[in-house]
Design goal:
Elements lengths: L1 E2 L11 E6 L11 E16 L7 H9 L4 E11 L5 H19 L6 E8 L6 H11 L7 H10 L8 E9 L2 E10 L12 E6 L5 H13 L5 E2 L9 E6 L13 H23 L7 E9 L2 H12 L2 H8 L6 H8 L11 E6 L2 E7 L2 E2 L4 H8 L3 E7 L5 E8 L3 H8 L4
Parallel strand pairs: 4-5, 8-10, 9-16, 11-15
Antiparallel strand pairs: 1-6, 2-3, 3-4, 3-10, 6-7, 7-8, 11-16, 12-13, 12-15, 13-14
Organism: Acetobacterium paludosum
Main location: cytoplasm
Family: Belongs to the ArgJ family.
Length: about 400
Amino acid sequence: MKIIKTGGVTTPRGFKAGGTNCGIKANEKSDLAIIYSEVPGGTAILTTTNEVKAAPILWCKDVIANPYKQAVVVNSGNANACTGQAGITAVAATAKKMAEALGLKPEDVLVASTGVIGVALPVEKILSGIDVLVPKIGNTSEDGRLAANAILTTDTGVKTIGVEVEIQGKLVKIGGMAKGSGMIHPNMATMLSFVTTDVNIEPALLQKLLKETTIDTYNMISVDGDTSTNDMVTVMSNGMAGNDKLEEATTDYEIFKEAFVFVHKTLAKKIIRDGEGATKFIEVEVYGTKTKNEARILAKAVITSNLVKTALFGEDANWGRVLCALGYSGVEFDPLKVSLIFSSQAGMITLLKDGVPIAFKEDEAKKVLSETDINISVDLKDGDEKAVAWGCDLSYEYVKINGDYRS
C-alpha cells in the first residue's frame, strides 16, 4: 500500500470536488462542498444511531434504497436538525438543485449538513452556492482540499487521506475526507466522513465491509461522550480502476480491505487528534478478554471516562480512575488478574501487576504523561481477544468552546 501525501476525495479516478462560501458562515469562511463522480458509483452509508436524526440523514436513508449515487453536497455552519418539515423540504430542494446542475436525478444525490442544531437552514444560500460551485469543481488535490475545508466547524484543520494498492495489475485508489472535533462518541458521532474509491465492487459487499470496518474505527473513538444527530460515513465506488469485480474471501479483496480499513482508521484518529480543546491523544489497548466485544466495551469505558480524561490533562497518573472505569463497564473480570501500564515516547510505567499496585516515582510518571501521545495498556489475562479505542483529554478549552458554541 502506498500512502499519497496529498491524497483526498479526488485521488481516485473519475472524482471531482470543490468548496466555497455560500453565506451560511460569517467572514466568508468556506461552508459548501461537493463531491461528484463522472459515472454512477455503488454507494455504502452508515448514519447516526441517535433517535433524533437531522433532515439530510432522513433523505440519505431513504434514497440509498438504490445504492448507485453520483454526487454528495455538504454544508457546514447549520445542521438542519430539529427543523421540522421546513428542513425536509430544504434537503429535497438542495438535491433537486444539485441534480439539475449536474444532469442527474435528485435521488442520485446524497446530502449532508453539520453545525448548529435547531436553526432554520438558509436553503436559498445553498442553492445559489451550488450554481457558483459546480462549474469550479475539479480533480486536483487542491480541489479535494477545498472540499475538505468546507465541511469543517470547530475543527482546526482539514482531515484527508489517500492510498493506492495494486489489484489484478490495476492501480486502485482510495481517498477520503472527514470532519469532527466535538460531540464525538462511539456508535458514530458528530462526524462526517466521505470516502471515494475507483475499485469495482458490488454495493452490497461494500456496505458489508463498511459496517465491519466502522465497528473498530469510528465506533472506537470518543471526545466527549455525546452522539450527534447528523453523523454519517459514506463510500462511493465508481469502478473506474478497471479491475474485475472484487469477491469476498479472495486475496484481492483482502488487499483492498487492508487499505480500506487503514483509510477509515486514519480519518477516525485524525478526528480525535483534533478534539475540541484536546492536548492529549489517548490510545487504550485492552488485552486478554474472552470476546472481542468485551474488549471493545472495556476500552470505550476508559476513553469516555471524564475522570480519566481530566487526570491525563493534568498529567496525573491516577490509574485508579482507569480501573474504576473498567469496573463499571458491565464486563465481568477478576481485578486480581489485571495489569496496567501507562507509556509514551518518554518511557513506560507499570502501575498495576496481577492486581497488585506497583510503586512509582511521581516525577517519572509526570514525564511519561507530559507527552502528547499517551498509551494505556490493560491486560485482563482472561482470554485471547483484544481491542483498541482512541480518545483525548478534557481541558478548560473544551468548556470554553462549547460554552459559547452558538455565538
